[in-house]
Amino acid sequence: MASSAARDTSSARETIYQAISAIRLVDPHTHINPHTPASSTLADILGYHYYTELVHSAGMPRQEIEEPGIGPRELVRRMVHGLGNITNTANYHWLLQICREFFDFNDDAITPDNWESLYDAAEEKMNGAGWAQTVLDQSNVEAVFLTNDFDDELEGFDSSTYIPCLRTDDLVFHLAKPEVRGRLERCSGVPLDGTLGSLRAALEQRFEHFVSHGARACAISIPPTFQPTMVDDGAAQNALDHVLRHDTGSEDAQRDALSRRVFWTLAELCDQYGLPFDLMIGVNRGVYPSGVYQGQDLYDSRVSLIQYKELFNAFPKVKFPVSVLASVTNQELVSYSWIFPNVLTNGHWWYSNTPSFIHRDAAARLEAVPRNKQIAYYSDAYKLEFVLPKFDMYRRILSRVLADEFVGENGWSEEKAIQLGRQVLRGNVDEVFRSPL
Amino acid sequence: MASSAARDTSSARETIYQAISAIRLVDPHTHINPHTPASSTLADILGYHYYTELVHSAGMPRQEIEEPGIGPRELVRRMVHGLGNITNTANYHWLLQICREFFDFNDDAITPDNWESLYDAAEEKMNGAGWAQTVLDQSNVEAVFLTNDFDDELEGFDSSTYIPCLRTDDLVFHLAKPEVRGRLERCSGVPLDGTLGSLRAALEQRFEHFVSHGARACAISIPPTFQPTMVDDGAAQNALDHVLRHDTGSEDAQRDALSRRVFWTLAELCDQYGLPFDLMIGVNRGVYPSGVYQGQDLYDSRVSLIQYKELFNAFPKVKFPVSVLASVTNQELVSYSWIFPNVLTNGHWWYSNTPSFIHRDAAARLEAVPRNKQIAYYSDAYKLEFVLPKFDMYRRILSRVLADEFVGENGWSEEKAIQLGRQVLRGNVDEVFRSPL
Amino acid sequence: MASSAARDTSSARETIYQAISAIRLVDPHTHINPHTPASSTLADILGYHYYTELVHSAGMPRQEIEEPGIGPRELVRRMVHGLGNITNTANYHWLLQICREFFDFNDDAITPDNWESLYDAAEEKMNGAGWAQTVLDQSNVEAVFLTNDFDDELEGFDSSTYIPCLRTDDLVFHLAKPEVRGRLERCSGVPLDGTLGSLRAALEQRFEHFVSHGARACAISIPPTFQPTMVDDGAAQNALDHVLRHDTGSEDAQRDALSRRVFWTLAELCDQYGLPFDLMIGVNRGVYPSGVYQGQDLYDSRVSLIQYKELFNAFPKVKFPVSVLASVTNQELVSYSWIFPNVLTNGHWWYSNTPSFIHRDAAARLEAVPRNKQIAYYSDAYKLEFVLPKFDMYRRILSRVLADEFVGENGWSEEKAIQLGRQVLRGNVDEVFRSPL
Ligand SMILES: [Zn+2]
Ligand SMILES: [Zn+2]
Ligand SMILES: [Zn+2]
Asked: Could you confirm whether domain B40-130 is CATH 2.60.40.3080?
């Protein structure tokens, strides 16, 4: 029998970490605004919902954080007074790393005593010429995917660095709102005349627009109760008629039928236009309506990918990179990706994007899902400065898993482990989200 | 890029462990009887349901364990014959540690050959003067919270060491039993005249009584199906009328409505009286009715904190320290505590109180929940001797997480890690459960 | 206070691993065909659904893998071209270990360049005299449990090496198919005359047949929605009447009632004949009907053992070794085995049979379930060659848990840890599945 003694893997871990840190990244999901991709002041950093919601949860009233009219410096001053309660969080570690990597910060914590000089140092850097490009270069990032509203013009930025992605939540879940239908009519130029045909034509026009402007993915976030299924023409027309008459006062069942019909149409269009359809499964919006901006959503972890059985079977040629909100769903994601050719694992999302959940979820994927079907990570960042610390958190964990489990337990060479890391971090992003043009 | 090599954290772990072991504890949830807080014989130790149920599960008939009339020595003799099957369990490790720390036991196991001298040694110690205080001192424990029936007189003990806590399961889930209503009338002095007003008055009298006697928390354990919501006066009066007519023969829906109304009233009274409301979520009672005493309860892990959405929103000023029975619910607990200011993480309860579940659950909390919102641990002990081994199990795991993840991965100093440990182990207990008077 | 420094456990791990690798195994669940227990060519290895489904999921069309008429060499050639995408998987590691242990393979990977010599080397070994016995001996395996259809004659093999097990999925879930009822009539010799009595007589005859031929267990795999409950004679006769009239066109509720009645009858017969009833809980069949053979099943992880409450209470003398498909159910399994004397933990099944899930699930069991109630592992193998690498994967993880948690954290001696390993790996298999004769 072979030996089973655990090797000391700290050296392997360091070697792997250095190697995968040298990989130039394409970040396959962010909320970056390509017109203002980087921060202008530290308030853009500390105003990120991860900080406002945590500081609020730790005791600061929402009114203090969101008081109308306060300037960026005052917001940062207030937020800094709440940071002491969240120094243990992964999110705070991102903040410290941003300050250290980009703003020459060397202290151990951001405090009422040192924040102002940090604020000034950051502002000076941010106001320098080409700050966004500086951040991209220092972060070793080649390109980031965007999250574009369906009526985004997609003009005025370089789509090889800022890659469009068609976000479809509004279309699927909010078509009962007259303003959403109005936006769709205006941007598509297709009058919605009450027929399913006009609705589909408008959606198709959007795919044309997005693909021709460099889009490489369609995406949606989905509540845990949603079950995508085909809705036949009769039922769909009924639902559409009803919703057009009642708008947001529609019956739940009718609105849900229309949601499922639109969703299905989007999947058909992904098929037709060669776009992957990113599914981000599991969020309940507005669970805590008194929370800070973007800090109101939570979830019911009782969701199953079995709800997507019909979808995955119906669209074998559409790639579905799937993100799950709760770690408990990760094993299903691993198993469905193991069986369905068109299901892929995609990143570590939101409430599962902290080290211990990433560690267990990534380990389970790396040992069971075909290596060409794993999108390791995306930052979900709103500002470019966050790409570095988030990816670095992931890289540290990936190095740990590769060193401990693949080099240590499986006897792999470091080079083999690095190749696996490279494939999931970058190679698969290029392959899965290649341009459909 | 910084180094990612894992540091050898065994020295940090030892340092942290020693430091947090020196913290004088307040145990925020036990079932200690303040009139007989410590054990009288080893039968009080081995009669704990963790041992009787495990030994029964491993093969010993319930009748052998619960035969009426057997004395404490005979019970211990019988139990010892079953211990060989459970030497692997965490619960057995608590037992060994109790015997070593308190009874000068030095053997590797408790066996049919050595139990009797252990029994005698323990009995001699327990019969010594001030045994309870000796245990408290040797365990470095300043105070323990109790679990008091709503009609407890709360007299005859020192409430600075034995802190009252109003347990409300009977009120919420068993008001259909005439004897429960009778107890409530007698202890409150409020005649229940069939009106909601009299019911509320009786409950309020109990809060007066408990708070004036030093209570610092209200608590309840809840089945996985329960969903607390407001029941309006009309529906509540209907439910009360029905339950008063039919007692335990009431319809489920009516009894459930009354449960939800009483629960809501308790939350209002917690608000009014400034008491935290400990929620212990997820237990199904009596799943194995042929099991030994207190060894009959299990659970359905398919529960979600989304069921508490309305409650958490309705009572922003009430602190809800939440315990979850199954580890799968821990991520929701982390996320809800991350978002809701009034939701806190509380201990590692029952079936999740074994090392591997504690390890993963504690790690997830420490990296994501504001540090001032985590109640690290409580013993749930019935006798004082159990506080030490249970807290010590937790301290070892906490040291491991702090050393590995905070010192090792995050680069924290040992001192910073110890401060975090101190805050979750003791500081937050003082803050969250401070006297409302 | 005792020290909490983590010991270096690599030496303990190696010692434990060597010791438990020397244990002669009885594999308590396989799908081995006792008439052709070992492989004839490498196609029997690479044709295992774990490889065909993964290679298919990674991109190879099903038609290429399952083209009618292709020979074993051609199948292997094709499969090898897909292996590059699954080199990271645990299943691929099994494959490499098989080739190294049995076929003198020394390369790092199976590639288009080296597969043919491997194929030839394997074929030569497999065609040698007594290959099956060679594999058993080299794998240190004394016996394997089979999975026999209810109408298996159980003749022509040595039932001390190949131990029969009555698989009952067809009886419980497919009795609506006339061919299943026909098979039951023919093999039992009992005409199914439409009465419950004749159905029970036929089932009882099967128990007679199996037990007299050396069977030591009854087994079934169960979808997540199934809830076994007693169906009284009236309802059961109604269901049987309906199903006999409508066959597979029966109403779901009637078919389900019949399923529950047959299941209950099997439990009664397990009681009567002294057979353990292996429950493998949680699989949804045919979720991906376009998948390769045996690569179509997935699951909904939202299942609870509370569904088995009535069963576990009704049959206290029947041992239920329980396997769960999803790791999230493992904690319930641990808790139910901790409380119910007749519930045992059994192996690491299918999608939970990869290292990270085994590690966490095994650790949770070892620390909480009585040691005499844990069946550590089974291979689920279709060919004997797979017993070795699967058990070896498990042994490595078991050594890791025993060394890290029991020797390292609990201070156990290596010898004590080895004894625990021996009990769960072999001792309990002998005890739980002892011959009922
Ligand atoms: Zn996003
Ligand atoms: Zn308790
Ligand atoms: Zn099987």
From this structure: no
Interface test with A, best of C57, C138, C390 (most A CBs within 10 A): C57
Rounded Cα–Cα distance for residues A307 and C265 (Å) = 33
What's the confidence (pLDDT) of residue B1?
41
CB B285 within 8 A of CB B309: no
Ramachandran sector of residue C350 (left: φ over 0; alpha: ψ -120 to 50; beta: rest)? left
**CA pair distance B310, B32, nearest whole angstrom:** 33
Question: Mutation test of the interface with chain A: which of C302, C325, C356, choosing the one with the most A Cβ atoms within 10 A?
Answer: C356
Q: In CATH terms, is domain A10-36+130-432 a member of 3.20.20.70?
A: no
pLDDT, mean of residues B317-343? 98
Q: Is B291 on the interface with C (CB under 8 A)?
A: yes
Residue B121 tokens read as 């040694």
d(CA A253, CA A360): 38
Residue type, C151: D
What is the assigned CATH class of domain B10-39+131-432? alpha beta
Ranges of residues in chain C with a pLDDT under 70 are 1-7
Structure tokens at A47: 């105003």
- Residues of chain C with C-beta less than 8 angstroms from the C-beta of B58: 341, 370, 372-373
pLDDT of residue A8: 79
Pair of tokens at residue B46:
């081995």
Neighbours of C426 (CB within 10 A): 18
**pLDDT mean over A344-356:** 98
Across residues A117-139, what is the average pLDDT?
97
Closest CA to A92 of B369, C54, B89: B369
Q: How many residues does chain C have?
A: 437
ipTM of this complex prediction, to 2 decimal places: 0.97
* Domain range summary for chain B, segments of one domain joined by +: 10-39+131-432, 40-130
d(CA B146, CA A352) in angstroms, rounded, equals 36
For residue A383, the SS3 value is coil
* Beta-ladder partners of A298: A284
Contact C308, C242 (CB under 8 A): no
Which CATH number is associated with domain C40-128? 1.10.2020.10
* C-beta separation of A26 from A143 below 8 A: yes
The angle, 0 to 180 degrees and rounded to 10, between the axes of the packed helices B72-83 and B115-127 is: 130
Run of H or E residues at A273 = helix A252-273
Task: Please report, for residues A57, A122, B142, the alpha-carbon distance to residue A104 in angstroms, rounded to integers and kept in the order given.
Answer: 29, 9, 46
Q: Residue A127 contacts by C-beta under 8 Å, 6 or more apart in sequence?
A: A40
d(CA B399, CA B424) in angstroms, rounded, equals: 12
The structure tokens listed for C151 are 């109408």
Q: A37-129: which CATH topology?
A: uronate isomerase, domain 2, chain A (1.10.2020)
Residues 6 or more apart from B409 whose CB is under 8 A from it?
A: A355, A396, B6
Burial C75-84 (b: 16+ CB within 10 A, else e): bbbbbbebbb
Q: Enter the DSSP assignment of B5.
A: P
Residue in A89, A291, A297 nearest the CB of B368: A89
Query: Considering the domain C133-432 in this protein, what is its CATH number?
Result: 3.20.20.140
Residue with tokens 């959403």: A180
List residues bridging with B165 in a β-sheet: B217
Sheet with A218-222, strands from edge to edge, namely A166-167, A218-222, A277-281, A320-324, A343-346, A374-375
A283-284 and A298-299 as β-strands: parallel, antiparallel, unpaired?
A: antiparallel
Phi-psi region of A327 (alpha: psi -120 to 50; beta: other; left: phi over 0): alpha
Residue count of chain B? 437
Type and span of the H or E element at C324 = strand C320-324
Q: Which chains pack against A, by 3+ Cβ pairs within 8 A?
A: B, C
Q: What are the residues facing B163 on neighbouring strands? A: B145
Number of other residues whose CB lies within 10 A of the CB of residue B271: 15
- Given a cut of 70, whether residue A401 has pLDDT beyond it is yes
